[in-house]
Amino acid sequence: MPPTRQHTTAKPPSTDKRSAVFKALDAAVFNQAWAENAALTPRSAQALHNVGVLRNWTDGHVVLSRGQPTSTALMLVKGRLRVSVTTPEGEEQLLRWMLPGEISGLSSVFAESTYPADLVSSGQTQVLHIERSRLIDLIGRDPVVAVDLLRILGLRINQLFDTLADQGMHSLEQRVWATLERIAKFNSVTVPDGVMLRVSQSDLAQAASASRQRVNQQLRHFQDQGLIRLGYRNIVLLRR
Question: Where are the alpha helices (DSSP H) in 89-192?
Answer without folding.
Answer: 106-111, 132-141, 143-167, 172-186
